[in-house]
């Protein structure tokens, strides 16, 4: 069955632009390295396909019709877009263009994430990033459902997804204590935001602990509990919050103390100070470290994601975290 509205070939549109620029079929044919009769036939075919006249022809002149004049800039834009397809496709194949959907835990926002984004943006400025802050459990569900490309999470990963997901550790950093400036003064620590003198958890055991709920951040929760356990202590849970900003704000309000990754020192709140932890023994020291890593679907690595993974691996190697 004959097609009633056959697609218009880009070749015909290029012929139209050339004739419109030359206003002479002979010169246009010479530019196109063809003879005049086939060019005239092609323009007639284009006019028939569009159902409008594009040129007014006489024995001596060729002029654009009003429709032809209005259509010319639109055709030029269309051809420019078509010409851009090849370099765009090649950029996409090299991971130099496209979109990367990345989620991250709030703890990554104060050290790791900005560094990765700077490195990635410098190497792949043509890639558009879609960033979402989410807890590790939410990220895993979004990742498995295909709604994000990758996520910065705190391990461990759920065992049921072990075969479907790939993971690489990016950074490991010690936990520090966030406490109110008043509490620091009571310990003889001073009120400056950061000091290198460590604080023993025994000195703060009476203070309520502000912490992530375990159901949302089991990895971080267990690390924090491990710190208390290594000191032979059981913390008194005061408040729970799912955002690091909220946890630090609660500390600022005098609601308790919090154990947070060291990079959280960059989150400044009036009345909050950060101090290193003192935990005896190698086993205690090992419990003070929180790891952050990148997770993605093992079977779906786009060129854009591959570029980001390369950036992540380079930073992990330079930091000695893998």
Automatic annotation (TrEMBL):
Origin superkingdom: Bacteria
The answer to whether UniProt assigns keyword DNA-binding to this entry is yes
Q: Which residues form the HTH lysR-type domain?
A: 8-65
- List, alphabetically, the GO terms of the cellular component aspect: protein-DNA complex
Tell me the GO molecular function terms: DNA binding; DNA-binding transcription factor activity
Signal sequence coordinates: none
InterPro entries according to UniProt: LysR_HTH_N (IPR000847), LysR_subst-bd (IPR005119), WH-like_DNA-bd_sf (IPR036388), WH_DNA-bd_sf (IPR036390)
In terms of Gene3D superfamilies, this protein maps to: Periplasmic binding protein-like II, Winged helix-like DNA-binding domain superfamily/Winged helix DNA-binding domain
Which key words are in the record?
DNA-binding, Transcription, Transcription regulation
Please tell me whether the keyword Transcription regulation is annotated for this protein. Answer: yes
Pfam families in the record, alphabetically?
A: HTH_1 (PF00126), LysR_substrate (PF03466)
Protein family membership:
Belongs to the LysR transcriptional regulatory family.
Q: What is this protein called?
A: LysR family transcriptional regulator
Q: What is the lineage of its organism?
A: Bacteria, Pseudomonadati, Pseudomonadota, Betaproteobacteria, Burkholderiales
């Amino acid at each position: 069955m004959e097609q009633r509205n056959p697609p218009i070939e880009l070749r015909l549109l290029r012929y139209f632009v050339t004739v419109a620029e030359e206003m002479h079929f002979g010169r246009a044919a010479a530019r196109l390295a063809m003879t005049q009769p086939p060019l005239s036939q092609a323009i007639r075919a284009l006019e028939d396909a569009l159902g409008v006249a594009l040129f007014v022809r006489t024995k001596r002149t060729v002029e654009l019709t009003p429709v032809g004049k209005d259509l010319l800039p639109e055709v030029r834009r269309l051809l420019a877009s078509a010409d851009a397809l090849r370099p765009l496709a090649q950029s996409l194949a090299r991971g130099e263009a496209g979109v990367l959907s990345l989620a991250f835990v709030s703890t990554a926002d104060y050290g790791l994430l900005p560094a990765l984004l700077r490195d990635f943006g410098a190497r792949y400025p043509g890639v558009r990033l879609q960033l979402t802050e989410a807890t590790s459990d939410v990220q895993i569900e979004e990742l498995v459902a295909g709604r994000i490309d990758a996520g910065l999470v705190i391990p461990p990963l759920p065992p049921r997804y072990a075969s479907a997901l790939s993971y690489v550790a990016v950074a490991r950093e010690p936990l520090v204590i966030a406490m109110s400036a008043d509490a620091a003064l009571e310990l003889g620590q001073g009120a400056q935001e950061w000091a290198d003198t460590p604080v023993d958890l025994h000195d703060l055991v009476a203070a309520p602990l502000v912490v992530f709920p375990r159901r949302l951040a089991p990895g971080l929760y267990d690390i924090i509990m491990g710190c208390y356990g290594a000191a032979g202590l059981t913390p008194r849970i005061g408040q729970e919050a799912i955002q690091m900003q909220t946890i630090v704000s609660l500390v600022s309000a005098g609601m308790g103390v919090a154990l947070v990754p060291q990079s959280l020192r960059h989150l400044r709140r009036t009345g909050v100070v950060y101090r290193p932890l003192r935990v005896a023994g190698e086993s205690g020291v090992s419990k003070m470290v929180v790891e952050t890593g990148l997770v993605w679907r093992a079977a779906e690595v786009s060129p854009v994601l591959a570029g980001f993974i390369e950036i992540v691996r380079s930073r992990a190697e330079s930091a000695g975290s893998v």
